[in-house]
Amino acid sequence: MNNDPLAQLRDIRLPVEPDWWPPAFGWWIVAALTLIGLIAVARLFIDAYKARRPIRAAQTLMQNLIDEHSHGTVTDLDFAHHSNALLKRLLVVALDIGPLAKTSNTQWLQALDIISKSNDFTNGTGQILGLQRFDPSSTPNITDLKQLLLKLIACAHPTKTKQVLLQSLLQQPSPKQKSEANHD
Hints:
Layout: H1 25-51, H2 53-71, H3 76-94, H4 105-116, H5 142-155, H6 160-171, H7 175-183
C-alpha cells in the first residue's frame, strides 16, 4: 500500500486562457458608438454632397455656355444675358436667396461682389451683368467675364452664401435711411 497521500492527487490543470471572442460588454459599447459615429459622418458627407448639387450643375451649365460661345453659336451679349439668368437661377431658386429675385443693376452687382469677395462686378468686367447688357453697342470683355463667372460660381456655398448676403443686406442702410442721414 502506498501511504503517500500526494500520489493520489490528480495533475494540475491550468485554466483556459481567455479568448478574444466574445468581447467584454465595454467593447460592445465602444463598437456601437464607433458605428454610430461612422454613420453620422457618412450622412454629413452625403448631405453636403447633395447640397452642392445645384452649384455643380451651375458650373456644368456655365461651362456649356462658355463652350457654345467659343464655337460662335452665342453672341457676346447673349452670353451675358444667359449667364445672368443662370446666376439668378442658382442664387434665387437653387440656393433660396429670395431677396435677390427683385434686385437688378447696382444691387445685383453688389450682391455678386459680396459672393465673389471682390469688386469686379460693380467696378470691373462684371458690370455687363447690370444694365449694360441691354445696350446693343456695349462690348463686354468676354474672356475676363468667363473667368469671373467661374470664380463666382466656385465661391458659392449652399448655406454660407445666403447667410453672408442676408447679413450684408441687413447691414446696408436703406435709401430712406441714407436720405435721412444726408438731411442731418
